[in-house]
Amino acid sequence: MKKTLIILLALLPLCITAQGQNEQYSSEPEPQYSTTRAGEQPKTNKKDKKILTGFSGGMMIHGGYAFSSNPQELFRNGSFPTTGEQIKNLPSDGMTLGLGGALRFHLVDHIHLGGEGHVSTMPLMKSGSSIRMGWGGALCDFYANLGIVRPLIGVVIGGGTMKRLYVPENAENVKGDVTYNASYTSTSFFLLDPYVGIEIALGKMALFIKADYALPFGSSGSVLQQKVSWSNFITPNGPRLYVGVMFGH
Q1: DSSP string, 10-31
Q2: DSSP per residue, 223-238
Q3: Quick check: 88 pLDDT over 90?
Q4: Predicted model pTM
């Protein structure tokens, strides 16, 4: 928790500095007829640039590729076989698909502050095994206005849960009873999620595309009582590509 606060405090000066630099610029004064007498200085009516310049929100779908160094690291469970023929068929990576949404406030026309959340599922084998990752957090990114194109770079700081379901493809038949020896574990994690993206304005909506690489940190094994540790980088993880539509003002 202390390290989470340190990261948040480290990002705060960046946002404040960028905001302060942009507040120094003001919009052009409106033309006015002069009503001053000879020898008097004309008064100007300058308006400071708005801090809150808009808001936006929307939904997006994503696809990606997540991987681990080996099947044991992927499932984090010792109940499935570690020797024999079955281990050769266990995967250590796979494609992941999901959806999510985001809500953002636009500050000084160069900063997004808000939050987002996503659910991503990686189906494995034909038995119903899967890795499901759900996460959410606060986002901060910086963007530039290049006509209708808006490139951006930022980070999401938050947390979530990784749920691992293992169902073996070959059931065991013991005295007429079918035993699948399935296992289910759930691991909480702290998340750092850097990303780059681009928006293309289409009136009051925008096509939103971004790519990220989520970095989850959690418990070292499948024992649920273990505390989440910053030093424990967990898998599976990998890049994702997001495509969605943002609506706002």
Answers
A1: HHHHHHHHHHHHHHT-BPPPPP
A2: -TTSPP-TT-B-SSB-
A3: no
A4: 0.73
